[in-house]
Amino acid sequence: MKRSEQLIQTIRERAIKPVPKGYFTLKNALLWGTFAVAVVLGALAFSVILFSIQQTDFNLISHLSHSRLEFFLGMLPLFWLAALTLFLIFAMTSFRNAPGGYKLPAGRLVAYCTALSVLLGTLFFLTGGSQRLEHTFGTQVSLYESMQEKKIKLWSMPQDGYLSGEILAVEAETFTLRDFSQKNWEVGYADASFPPMVQIVAGEQVKIIGEMDGEMAFTARQIRPWGGMGQHNRPNLGPGREKVREAGDTIESGHRFYRCRKEANHKQNSYFCRPNQQPSNPPTF
């Protein structure tokens, strides 16, 4: 019996029927769809990882009394790292089973899938979507500990020198701070250093490094913005601090010097100040 006849006989005996073309079309669509969804979800996970890195004060390590490993494990976004890994595996598996996917070497497949998620995740992070996503998880998923909650824990240890909250009222050398447990503190900031984007005004949320100075009293050495370093360079000197007399004056704020000029279309005493690294004969007001 010829081989062709044997093949026909085998098909008849096993009742083999042709698979509809639509089956393969649907299968390929599902594979590519799974790949696209996995890459996008991986990108979302990566964007939250970037947000977590942005919100972590790595220069705080030098001030910590406990171990650095404990700090990293406490701030590490383990959930999002696991999610990113899982979604990348889904993306690579679906691509490998898609038409022509077997031709791509494993190394390139890993690199391409990772690069896509990183690129899209970075764009999502830059648009502010990662912060909203992380906040949504923190409010909707009870078992999830958000970056905000981790930061509050880290910066709510006044006995160890870390305090945070919202400024309620400002005096010449002190301000009243309400921490995240709704307790009011009297904070002395006369000798504190702070970057120019920190505004010592009511309603501003800050985090402080210093030491306790009695019951509900705290002396600040460093004051930082709660949300991370901003983009503007407007020093707010606060009541009782040095004042700008006129454009061109050199002022000191937070142990840094600034050369100031008057701003257009603003009130008479509004000034825009840029860092002046080597001030010549800074005035004392």
Gross morphology is rod-shaped
Q: What does the main sheet amount to? A: 5 strands, mixed, barrel
Total strand count, please?
8
**Which residues sit in consecutive blocks of at least 5 with pLDDT less than 50?**
230-285
Distance from first to last alpha carbon = 111 Å
Strand order of the largest sheet: 1-2-3-5-4
What fraction, in percent, of the residue positions are helical? 40-55%
Beta-strand residue fraction: 15-25%
Taking all Cα atoms into account, the compactness measure Rg is 29 Å
Question: What is the chain-wise order of helices and strands?
Answer: HHHHHHHEEEEEEEE
Mean pLDDT: 77
How many separate domains? Answer: 2
Derived from helix and strand composition plus strand pairing, the structural class reads: alpha+beta
The number of helical runs is 7
Topology:
Blueprint (H helix, E strand, L loop, with lengths): L2 H12 L6 H35 L12 H8 L2 H20 L8 H21 L2 H12 L6 H8 L7 E9 L3 E5 L5 E5 L16 E8 L4 E9 L24 E4 L2 E7 L8 E5 L10
Parallel strand pairs: 3-5
Antiparallel strand pairs: 1-2, 1-4, 2-3, 4-5, 6-7, 7-8
Brief summary of the model shown:
By secondary structure, the chain is of the alpha+beta class. The chain contains 7 helices and 8 strands; from the N terminus they run αααααααββββββββ.
